[in-house]
Amino acid sequence: DTGVSQDPRHKITKRGQNVTFRCDPISEHNRLYWYRQTLGQGPEFLTYFQNEAQLEKSRLLSDRFSAERPKGSFSTLEIQRTEQGDSAMYLCASSLPGLAGGETQYFGPGTRLLVL
Amino acid sequence: AQSVTQLGSHVSVSEGALVLLRCNYSSSVPPYLFWYVQYPNQGLQLLLKYTTGATLVKGINGFEAEFKKSETSFHLTKPSAHMSDAAEYFCAVIRGGEKLTFGTGTRLTIIP
User: Fold this and answer.
1) What residues in A contact B104, CB-CB < 8 Å?
2) CA distance A115 to chain B (A)
3) What contacts B5, CB < 8 A, 6 or more positions away?
4) A55 to chain B: which residues are within 8 Å by CB?
5) Which tens digits make up the pLDDT trace of B60-88?
6) Which of A101, B45, B53, B74 has a CA 20 to 30 Å removed from the CA of A13?
7) Cβ atoms of A89 and A95 closer than 8 Å
8) Chain B closest CA to A96's CA: distance in Å?
């Protein structure tokens, strides 16, 4: 168990550019989540996958955002035509659901995005 | 909609003093409740969680929380604060579904 990893840890981009973030979950975890955290706030849910299927998307996930998990392992989150309001910490988490529910989500270190 | 409220965005306690961070949830059905800690520029680490069973939950680093259905609360406590406890603490809930809904966080400062 090497934990959830995210790459890059930091990204600075200019408004209008596209960016892509990667998340590698804990190897046996079949659920993967993306959250966004702005300064001084708690994380907000964006989307989640069970294996390769994207099961839920938040209304926060505008059409400029797209997430994939093609082989049910790592996931990518792409933001097209970035805006200054996209500046935030993007957190990935993974979990292994059990029968009882309420499974623990394990978080990665996050990718901090700054849009200039 | 399921939500949590954390009272006090900033809490300061002296080293060795009791830590009490407050969390109330809104729900007509007991939810799954979590406390996470976040150190600067890092992800979130689970401190403890309540799913079912014993209402007093013990977590890592000496923290514990008590689920009180009558008060819809899940306050986090630690008997004696340590300098290393300085961090941001988030209460979160799952009710139905799978996604976590977080409170706005409480920044804990430890005074030497």
Assistant:
1) 40-42
2) 17
3) B23, B24, B25, B26, B103
4) 98
5) 999 999 999 889 999 999 999 999 999 99
6) B45
7) no
8) 11
